[in-house]
Amino acid sequence: MKFALVTGGSRGIGKAISIRLAEMGYNILLNYQSNTEQAEITKALIEEKQVKAELLGFDVSSKKEIEEVLGNWIDAHNEDYIEVLVNNAGVRKDNLLMFMTDEEWHSVIDTSLNGFFYITRLVIKGMLVKKYGRIVNVVSLSGLKGLPSQTNYSASKAAIIGATKALAQEVGRRGVTVNAVAPGFINTDMTKDLNEKDFKSLIPVNRFGTPEEVAHTVGFLASPEASYITAQVISVNGGLYS
Ligand code: NAP
Fold it and tell me: Which residues are marked as active site?
């Protein structure tokens, strides 16, 4: 059976991506950290698309949890194969660099960057054996442009952009593409502290984006039709930065 693994799939952009990939016919492995209630709601929405959904709760910043939960799932499912991996889980802990705590720095880097590394290293083996796979990393405008109070977040996303381009060159011959999607301001829990009215005049399309607008781009990059697109960063930001 073919699966798509979406990290941080319970809420926001990851939820929309999971539903989009389910519409494309993928069975979904839905990772989340702690919000089981939301994960169950998203699981039910995926199942409405007549595919399977399995919840995999683990902290993407923990190598131990990744190897235990995801590693065990892979070992126990010899007949199944994760064809699409979307590294989406991420957190914001904004602060000016001079006041930034060790915890604010490490938790943001560990969640985005270490999560990308440990999960992708596990999942890519199956793709290379099958000679087909799609990896999409959800990064950010902040990783392209840099945003004040986000040195931790900008650094983690910029690092993943570099890793996306490097990994794409390692695995292109084996039918595996690796791309990144860089959203601008998207209406989710992560941006609920930001007032859209204060920011929208900066955005050419004059509004925040929706999780579904990001999900459609991820869905395209995850499709067989995107086979000649790799090592790219696609912005979904209403024209805010190019
Ligand atoms: P969100 O609404 O805050 O949702 C975050 C999701 O990630 C939840 O499913 C959460 O799980 C999960 N998560 C957080 N930390 C995790 C961890 N350590 N291990 C496993 N899962 C974890 O965020 P979002 O706005 O959808 O953002 C999704 C991605 O898009 C992030 O990488 C973010 O950096 C990026 N992004 C967002 C925006 C934006 O404007 N929203 C813009 C640019 C980029 P629980 O439900 O269990 O907490």
Answer: 153
Coil/strand/helix, residue 186 = strand
| Amino acid 121: pLDDT | 98
pLDDT digits (tens, 9 = 90+) for 29-49: 999 999 999 999 999 999 999
Query: Does residue 210 line the site of ligand 1, with CB under 6 A?
Result: no
Nearest CA to ligand 1 atom 39: 186
> Which CATH architecture is the domain 2-236 placed in?
3-Layer(aba) Sandwich (3.40)
pLDDT below 70 — which residues of the chain? Answer: none
The verdict on the CB of residue 89 being under 6 Å from ligand 1 is yes
Domain ranges of the chain: 2-236
The edge-to-edge listing of strands for the beta sheet with 176-183 is: 53-57, 27-32, 2-6, 81-87, 133-138, 176-183, 233-236
Q: What distance in angstroms lies between residue 58's CA and the mean position of ligand 1's atoms?
A: 14
